[in-house]
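Budget justification aside, the reviewers requested a transparent look at the raw inputs and outputs of the sequence design task funded under Objective 1. We therefore reproduce one unedited record. The lines immediately below are the structure tokens for a 437-residue chain.
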């Protein structure tokens, strides 16, 4: 029997050692090196529990969280899966086939002083101008292309402590597909599709859908959105002012179109107020309007449209106009105009946006209904229920609780009580306060 050659044995041993070395690099050395580089890149402000590489160099990061999470602001990501496509050092270019974020959670809080608290990589809240300066200083070094971005089962929580009763809203079960995206921004116009639910304390969540595209360089965009009936009691913290609106069981259904071309922005929002069995507007104790009187002879609902326009990059300069969409809303507008109330000031981005009210023709009312129906039909595809199957094998330690400390589940948005002295205010004071709440 002929003995095997010695060099074949050595070749087999070398191949075995090569495979063992490659396996060690991919499963032990490379993930640790990647974790260390990521920690240094963000200055230690992000904590990543584990990194794993798989063929062909797909990176899976687990247990990502902001190092300074608090009950006021927090950021966590259960898993991030990065699939590379091209990496070029001479061209300083990174191309990713996909970026998948599973179960991300972001909490933002606005304090009583009006300061916005959100997780930043400097451990302290940044102003918008400072953030842009830091981003522009770092990003020109590299160009990052992402063919597809996917978010699964995300949560966005916003708390506003400025009102007398803190306002709390939660967007959850967020599902997002977007791309392609380039950073810094190029002339591309990435498209996206988003769906989820929106709700808050003591308010049942309502589905919301959006789709469209955005051109950040040319300042162009075209977006369509739909909100299923949402209880307006969610917004009562903003309605307890000198002019008090009591929503009771009223609901809001909303469809909208958002458009911009060369920074010229315009939006059309079709509103439908339902469940108008109760609801009133009072100023300093005097009831100005009862919605039951408006819908006593017909269907208990009001429809209308708000048009907003202004420069896209200066939302503080936006203004709008409200147009009724049915006879009941037309009656409401006529009553306001009879009381010399021609402009409403709506809280918006820490300020007030002026919305002029005007009556509508029958043709305009029909157009409002047609546009709302068209948007709903176009977004029907996003209304398909989503089945989430996200692995939960890696826990996220030290994550701040979902419910902020300043708000408890027992918080109730009870209507204000008024005194007999307030109820005796004269009509001129009522009209002035309704015009300038």
């Amino acid at each position: 029997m002929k003995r095997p050659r010695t060099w074949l044995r050595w070749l087999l041993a070398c191949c075995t050692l090569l495979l063992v070395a490659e396996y060690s690099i991919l499963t032990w050395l490379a993930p640790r090196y990647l974790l260390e580089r990521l920690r240094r890149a963000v200055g230690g402000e992000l904590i990543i529990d584990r990194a794993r590489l798989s063929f062909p160099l797909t990176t899976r990061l687990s247990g990502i969280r902001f190092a300074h999470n608090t009950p006021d602001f927090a950021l966590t990501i259960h898993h991030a899966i990065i699939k590379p496509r091209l990496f070029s050092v001479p061209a300083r270019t990174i191309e990713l086939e996909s970026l998948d974020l599973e179960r991300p959670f972001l909490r933002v809080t606005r304090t009583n002083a009006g300061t916005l608290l959100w997780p930043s990589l400097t451990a302290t809240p940044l102003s918008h101008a400072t953030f842009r300066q830091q981003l522009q200083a770092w990003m020109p070094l590299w160009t990052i292309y992402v063919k597809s971005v996917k978010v699964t089962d995300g949560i966005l929580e916003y708390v506003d402590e400025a009102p007398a009763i803190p306002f709390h809203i939660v967007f959850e079960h967020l599902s997002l597909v977007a791309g392609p995206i380039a950073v810094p921004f190029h002339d591309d116009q990435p498209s996206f599709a988003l769906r989820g639910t929106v709700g808050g304390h003591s308010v049942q969540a309502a589905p919301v859908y959006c789709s469209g595209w955005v051109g950040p360089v040319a300042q162009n965009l075209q977006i369509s959105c739909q909100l299923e009936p949402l209880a307006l009691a969610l917004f009562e913290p903003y309605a307890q002012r000198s002019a008090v609106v009591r929503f009771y069981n009223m609901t809001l259904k909303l469809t909208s179109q958002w458009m911009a071309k060369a920074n010229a922005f315009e939006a059309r929002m079709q509103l439908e107020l339902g469940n108008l069995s109760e609801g009133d507007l009072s100023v300093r104790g005097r009831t100005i309007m009862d919605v039951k009187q408006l819908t006593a002879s017909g269907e208990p609902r009001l429809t209308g449209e708000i048009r907003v326009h202004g420069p896209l990059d200066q939302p503080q300069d936006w203004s709008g106009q409200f147009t009724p969409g049915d006879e009941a809303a037309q009656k409401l507008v006529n009553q306001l105009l009879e009381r010399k109330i021609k402009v409403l000031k709506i809280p918006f981005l820490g300020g007030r946006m002026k919305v002029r009210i005007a009556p509508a023709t029958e043709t305009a009312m029909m157009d409002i209904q047609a546009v709302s129906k068209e948007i709903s039909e176009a977004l029907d595809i996003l209304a398909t229920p989503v089945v989430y199957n996200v692995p939960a094998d890696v826990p996220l330690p030290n994550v701040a609780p979902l419910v902020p400390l300043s708000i408890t589940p027992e918080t109730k948005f009870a209507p204000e009580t008024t005194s007999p002295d307030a109820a005796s205010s004269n009509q001129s004071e009522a009209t002035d306060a309704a015009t300038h709440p």
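The longest strand covers residues 93-110. DSSP finds seven helices and 21 strands in the chain. Computational costs for records of this kind are itemized in the attached budget.
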